[in-house]
Amino acid sequence: KLKKLLEVYESRLPRSKYLPGDFISLADLSHFSFMRYFMTTEYADQLDTYPHVKAWWAALLARPSVKKVMVGMPPDFGFGAFLCKEYIIAM
């Protein structure tokens, strides 16, 4: 399931900087906690297989607002982390 999700992201991101378009939106932010948790797992190196997802993630992390929110934020924060755990278990 995790591979499929990353493939969906990868197929969408060549057309725009963010998931729905060229501007950050709630769609990107709703996937943030999922990716934040994913990047703390043993599978994080799989991101190298998805260059557009990797660029999208880097763009999110570079935003001052995201940097501010991440201070003190645990990696398993939010529903996205729960979903990511479920996807990893299904691998």
From TrEMBL:
> Highest taxon of the source?
Eukaryota
Q: Name one GO molecular function term.
A: glutathione binding
What top-tier enzyme class does this entry carry? transferase
Catalyses which reaction(s): RX + glutathione = an S-substituted glutathione + a halide anion + H(+)
Its protein name is glutathione transferase
Q: Does the keyword Acetylation apply?
A: no
GO biological process terms, semicolon-separated? glutathione metabolic process
What is the scientific name of the source organism? Triticum urartu (Red wild einkorn)
Native organism taxonomy: Eukaryota, Viridiplantae, Streptophyta, Embryophyta, Tracheophyta
